[in-house]
Design goal:
The complex is a heterodimer. Chain A is mostly helical. Chain A is 72% helix and 0% strand. In chain B, strand 9 and strand 10 form a beta hairpin. Classes of the chains: A mainly alpha, B alpha+beta.
Amino acid sequence: MLRKKDEQSEVVKEYIEKHQEDLYRLAYSYTKNSEDALDVVQESVYKAIVNADKLKNIQFIKTWMYRIVVNESLNYIKKQKKYVSDDAVLESIPYEDKDIADSIPVYNAVQQLEPKLRTVIILRFYEDMKLEDIATVTKSNLSTVKTRLYKSLKVLKDMLGTEIRG
Amino acid sequence: MNKIAESKKLYNSIEIPKQLNSVVESAIERAMKQKKSKTVVIKPMLYAAASVSILFVAGVNSNQAFAESVYKVPVLGSIAKVVTFREYEEEKEGYHLKINAPAIEGIENKALEKRINTEIQAKMDAVMKHAREREEENKKMLLKEGKSEKELSYFTINVDYEIKNSSDRILSFVINDTESFANTYTYQTYYNINLDTGKEITITDALGADYKKVIADSIKEQIKERVKEHPDYMYYDFDENAKYYFEDLKFYMKENGNVVISFDKGEIAPPPMGLQEFEITK
């Protein structure tokens, strides 16, 4: 029993080490500054290891881990109670790539979505997650995820004044 | 074409700070340590290593019985109450410590409220520190006597509180620090607050300037009665001139308005008599 638990935390540890950059990006898309994103990652990693034995099936490690990070991020936002402005988000990005330059308004619009809607968009389009998995991460049911997805797309469309998906 | 999917490039270009790896590694290390100490508590036979389990609930759990009794009374001023402020448990090789510490809130005199709460905090800290020191001392003694740490004696400390009076005018409560080693001792600390004036009630407020005589007369009389009823009871001589009785007088205000004087074990009677209370009737 003890051994299994230890193995479990080893697996979680390996996953975290391998995917720490993904976890950081996810956190950053909520906190919008690196210091707080590091805090969120730190707290998430700590909780994940301490609770590693609560992960029932190791196959679900990604959704499980993302859920922890999303929860921590949302907690962070709640605590901050302020909407972080997105002004500085794109400063360090090279503009040579025309495709990227075209994407900036879209990316910025995504960042302005209300956190729950943003979560769905980030997980779906940036993390390529299935809607079922997004439901697991956000602890909601599939139809809620679908509703949020459609709502996000509509809000984005309104913000950008154009069709998002052609 | 999917414009959102395209903007993923931007998402992926979020700069990764250099410290990320060390932050992650230190969080992992901290968590692993935490897990280990947890395992030790679950397996108490590992007595060689000190095992620490800390439970800290910062939430405010209001005392139900008290809250109800207060809310029933139409109170004009603020609602003063005693709440559980701190629950703490510590399990070590040489002792078990459990603290259920109160705090007061809703007292109009904020300075007094703060002072009492700080005082309670300091007292709790002292209790914890004292427990650790005592364990150390016990260990040292064992080594001196050439015994092994396995023979370490165990003591328990249990701190809890009790509300004695919760009318809309007076708030009286006691903190009991019960320590068991070979014997059990309970050290009491009383707080009495007049909610009208927002001040702590002194014994002079309660019984007047000649309180010593009032108390002494009443207690002497009560001792006589008690011994008459139970010939095996025994008390030390109580005298209004015996300074030490009045130095740290512990009392609370009963709901009927009477003052109740309380003595720790061994203070006014031989220790087997336990805690002793005397209600001073006016």
